[in-house]
Amino acid sequence: MSLKRFLAFAATLVLVSGCWSYPADVLEDSSSAVTPDQIGDTGGEDPDLPLVEDATNDNKVIDVVADVASDNKQGGFHPPGWTSPSVHGKAAMLNTMNCTMCHGTDLLGGTTGQSCDTCHDNGWRTNCTFCHGGVDNQTGAPPQSIDGATDAAAGAFPAHGFHVTGNGHALITCVGCHVTPTEVTSPGHMFDDTPGKAEVDLSGGLSPNGKFASMTCSSLYCHGNGQGDNGSVPLNKSDIGCASCHPGPKSSSVALGAMTGRHSMHVKEGVGCYECHSEVFNSQYQPVDGTLHVNGEPNYKLPNGITYNGKGCTGICHGEYHQSPSW
Q: Which of 107, 180, 196, 245 would bridge with 94, disulfide CB 3.0–4.6 Å?
C-alpha cells in the first residue's frame, strides 16, 4: 500500500470514528516515528502502524507512529508497547482512552473483532481486584488505586481499609458509599463521563441521606450520635475515637446530657458503657463484636439479674434496685 493511499484510508477512519487518539504519555518517544520511505507496501490489509491525531491542524493531519523493533509489534493501530498492562490498562482505568468506541460497549470486539476476553483470564470482568485493591484486603477497595498507587496514606481516601474490613464497627461495603457495579462495563463505572473518578453515593448504605462535598461527608448516621443523620467527618480525619461521634466516658457533662434516656446519669455514677453493652466493647473499650457497632440499631446485653422490657430495667444493678423506672 502506498503512503498516499494509507494516509487517506487512515484519515477517513480517524475522522469517522475518532478511535485512534492517544494521550501523549501513552506514546513512545518520537525516535520511533517512521519516515515515508520506511512505510512502503505492508503486504496486508492491517498494517502495524498506529495512528495519532495531530491537534495542530484541526485533527486532520495524522502522524504515523510505528515500532520498528520486530519483537514489539502490536498487530494493529495501537502505539508501541500497548499490550503491556501498565500501558493499555492504565489508559483504560483512567479512561484516557475509551476502549468501547472500537472494541464495543461490551468489549467483545466491536468493529475491531478483537475481544478483551482474548487476552484476559476468565472472570476478569467481575474481579474487582483485577483493576484496584488487593493490597490490604480482597474487597477491591484501594490500595491499590487505579493509577497504580499502593500507599493507602497517599490515596484519595486513606480510610478505605478501615471501612471495608470492619475495624471496630459493622462492615461498610462498597455499596455503602458507591453505586457498586456488577462488572467492568456496568453503567457509570469504567467508561463514563467522569474519567478516573469514583463518585460517592451514600444512598445504598446506613446513611441514605448523606452528602459528600468539599472532601467532607455530612448528614450521616455513621459518624453521628445514633439519634439521626447528624454525623459529619472530613476525609483526612485520622484520630477517630468514641467521642468523635457520640459522647464517651470522659466527655463533658454537657455532651453527656445530649445522650438518650438515662445514659448521662449512669455515666456520671461511674457505670461503664461496657456494663450494658458488653457484647460490643469490653472494659478497655476494645471492640468485642464490631458487627454490633454502627449497624443501624442499639445493641445491649445487661448484667446478670437485670431485665429490660423496652421501657425500663428491673433488678439490681450497680448497687441499686431498679423497678422498671422509665429509661
A: 196
